[in-house]
Specification:
heterodimer; A: 365 residues; alpha+beta; 26% strand; B: 208 residues; elongated
Chain lengths: 365, 208
């Protein structure tokens, strides 16, 4: 059987492309059970995109959940191994409530995790794979990168309370300058951070003026240089409005956008903090691609439902109809055999079968 | 083909004011002044398409990418918390979100406070930050009569001049947050139409 582009939907095509991409870089597929003990999610509720989880009681009385997330399960099952890195990818359905929607949805998610002794190479590789993942999906993409260390350095230099900190991070995420003034004074560095985005080289130049740890700037610079050397500088941007929960994430975080999809389709980052919370010593970085968002993208409005509508009457022997249809599919046309023209069916050609003879009645192509 | 900037404007007086700002910022669309019931107006030369939507729906259009940018009241943004960029405070449509009650109302902290409001999230967040136990009553309109009829103790609502409150024997007890119209942008559109959006922000921001 051959699959052509017409058969595969956007998201299905993306799944195959992504899996083959991750395979090529030595990431192994991590296949898992649909269920997980509910306990795992209670302890890390804020890490989940929505905190509603479908639960049920297993036959042994344990409270179980249909997975709302894959990363937590992978971390739970990984071992700390000094000096090495485990590279895994997954392609699983998760169950969660999308924002603003009522009821649970089944969402196809593909993602990868790199867990262990993370160095600059690992971070670069994951970012390159994120960029290539976006490339697999569309030509019009942008990967936004931020460094949470730089953001927290600047916030910490202000000496604000935890409550203010939360509000400041929200403002940064909204590129909201006007409300920063209501939260704290002496916020010039923060404002500079919000208004500095775009081309990596330009942004990094301006960072030297801000009160942040040179180690963090250096890390961001190194990564940006690697991406530039791979010819990605025009699609990779630095933007500090990518803010993730600092309870779980630290260091580099990133988000990928595709033109035509209204929200980030790829999201990831360095999550050493989550590893510590789960009692692991290793570092980790990874990302997920939300394939459900692809459904509406570039809906090539198929003009026709089928290439050939083959009309036959009740006196026609079934063998004749089979033969006539087989001839159509052999030359690559899709065909539906009917005795009457179905309402609303859009066909390219209408053919009539009579005593084994096929005649073209109508041609809309 | 030129990429069009899709703008969701809130229907009504505020929206007309906003359109004037956009026009001055170099995004005119004269057909919008035609007196008809059309909801979508386009000016291909200027690369802009405007549409009128219900004010409380602007944030939804923008968050879901049907509009690249839009103008919504801070009240709506606080209530629905859409995942969008909030680029400018336009300093128009100014009012405040407030707690109002009958003039003779005295708060008894030993009792659960009954709060009638259209803005349940804002009310919930405000009172939980104060650690106050409340009973929220969601209403869709004529909020002012709730305390008069004993349906609630107080209301949380938008107060502009306070005339409606006064006429119903209510007064403002606490201001929760000042409200004004904000320019919001879809996060993905911002990446792909940043040149146009930045130009608009610069022009409008500079003109004020």
């Amino acid at each position: 059987m051959t699959l052509n582009d017409k058969t595969l939907k956007n998201d299905e095509r993306a799944i195959f492309a992504l899996r083959s991409l991750y395979d090529r870089y030595g990431y192994s597929r991590y296949k898992m059970n649909k269920f997980e003990e509910y306990d795992l999610y209670v302890r890390n509720k804020d890490f989940l995109i929505s905190d509603s989880v479908i639960t049920f009681t297993d036959t042994n009385g344990k409270l179980m959940a249909l997975k709302p997330d894959v990363t937590l399960s992978i971390i739970k099952n990984c071992d700390d191994a000094e000096g090495t890195v485990q590279k895994m990818y997954y392609n699983e359905n998760v169950y969660r409530v999308s924002k603003g929607a009522l009821g649970f949805r089944e969402i196809m998610q593909v993602g990868l995790e790199c867990i262990g002794d993370i160095d600059d190479y690992c971070v670069s590789e994951v970012l390159l794979l994120a960029a290539e993942s976006l490339m697999c999906i569309s030509d019009e993409w942008v990967l936004d990168i931020s460094h949470l260390g730089i953001l927290t350095d600047i916030i910490d230099s202000l000496g604000v309370s935890d409550e203010q900190k939360k509000r400041i991070i929200k403002c940064v995420g909204e590129k909201n300058l006007h409300e920063l003034d209501l939260i704290c004074e002496n916020n010039e560095a923060l404002k500079a951070l919000i208004t500095t985005y775009g081309d990596a080289r330009e942004v990094i130049k301006k960072l030297s003026l801000l009160p942040c740890n040179p180690k963090h700037t250096e890390e961001l610079t190194n990564i940006a240089e690697v991406l530039e050397s791979c010819g990605l500088s025009d699609k990779v941007r630095i933007d500090f409005s990518i803010v993730d929960d600092i309870k779980y994430y630290n260091g580099i975080v990133f988000k990928g956008f595709i033109n035509g999809v209204p929200s980030g389709i790829l999201s990831g980052g360095r999550y050493d903090n989550l590893m510590r919370r789960m009692g692991k010593k290793s570092g980790a970085i990874g990302f997920a691609v939300y394939l459900d968002l692809l459904e509406g993208l570039g809906d090539e409005k198929n003009k026709f439902d089928v290439d050939v509508l083959m009309l036959y009457d009740e006196n026609e022997p079934a063998a004749n109809v089979c033969r006539a249809c087989a001839r159509m599919t052999e030359c690559g046309s899709s065909v539906t055999a009917q005795r009457k023209i179905p309402q609303k069916l859009r066909y390219k050609k209408l053919m009539k079968l009579k005593d084994g003879e096929v005649t073209v009645v109508e041609n809309n192509a | 083909m030129k990429t069009m900037l899709n703008v969701a404007l809130p229907k009504g007086r505020l929206g007309e004011k906003v359109y004037d700002m956009f026009e001055r910022a170099g995004f005119p669309c004269p057909s919008i002044h035609e007196n008809n019931r059309k909801l979508i107006f386009e000016n291909e030369a200027a690369g802009v398409r405007y549409f009128w939507v219900k004010p409380s729906d602007v944030a939804i259009y923008v968050e879901r990418g049907a509009a690249d940018i839009g103008v919504a009241g801070k009240d709506i943004l606080l209530e629905y918390a859409p995942d969008v960029y909030e680029l400018l405070d336009l300093d128009i449509g100014k009012c405040r979100m407030a707690v109002a009650a009958p003039r003779d109302f005295r708060d008894n902290p030993q009792k659960t406070l009954k709060v009638a409001t259209k803005f349940t999230n804002i009310a919930q967040t405000y009172y939980s930050s104060k650690g106050r136990d409340i009973d929220i009553i969601h209403l869709n309109g004529s909020i002012e009569i709730a305390p008069i009829l004993g349906l609630s103790d107080v209301i949380v609502d938008i107060v502009e001049t306070g005339t409606t409150l006064r006429e119903n024997n209510l007064e403002v007890f606490e201001t929760i947050v000042p409200i004004s119209a904000r320019l919001i942008a879809n996060k993905s559109s911002f990446m792909f139409k940043s040149v146009q959006i930045e130009k608009l922000v610069r022009e409008i921001g500079g003109a004020r």
